[in-house]
């Protein structure tokens, strides 16, 4: 009751909270979310998962910033896949049919399901090497006629 009266009267003491021991973390910024590769797989997974969706954990791949989303620990044998060099990683990642497999410094693996490029385009990690491929749509004569009728 006394504290309430002091506040109401404007006489309550004001003691600034010390920063030492504070647990509040400020808003994460993208420049602080770069992946440090010299960690075990569990730490890499927690880093990626902890920055999923905002701001997004990222690394430099083929000279551009690529953001990693949707990680999970992978407890299996090393899958077959196409190697992908990642700046700073001691071992190249593997683009597999399930996603991008990255390795911790303990030799264990993390599976990343989605990648986002600097231009905002997001793709399944398994499609990394086929992302730039475009196929021309070829219509049969019957389909061309149908297309003309629709126009």
Shape designation: flat
Question: Could you tell me how far the N terminus lies from the C terminus, measured between alpha carbons in angstroms?
Answer: 80 Å
CATH topology of the domain at 30-132: Methionyl-tRNA Fmet Formyltransferase, Chain A, domain 2
Main beta-sheet strand count, sense and barrel state? 7 strands, antiparallel
Rg measurement, Å: 25 Å
Low-confidence stretches: none
Listing every helix as H and every strand as E from the N terminus to the C terminus, the arrangement reads: HHEEEEEEEH
Structural description of this entry:
This protein is 18% helix and 26% strand. It is α+β, with helices and mostly antiparallel strands. The protein has a domain at 30-132: Methionyl-tRNA Fmet Formyltransferase, Chain A, domain 2. Strands 1, 2, 3, 4, 5, 6 and 7 form a 7-stranded antiparallel beta sheet that branches. The longest helix has 10 residues, at 41-50. It is flat, with a radius of gyration of 25 Å. The termini are far apart. The model has no long low-confidence stretch (mean pLDDT 88). GO terms for molecular function: catalytic activity. It comes from Anseranas semipalmata. InterPro entries: Formyl_trans_C (IPR005793), Formyl_trans_C_sf (IPR037022), Formyl_transferase-like_C_sf (IPR011034).
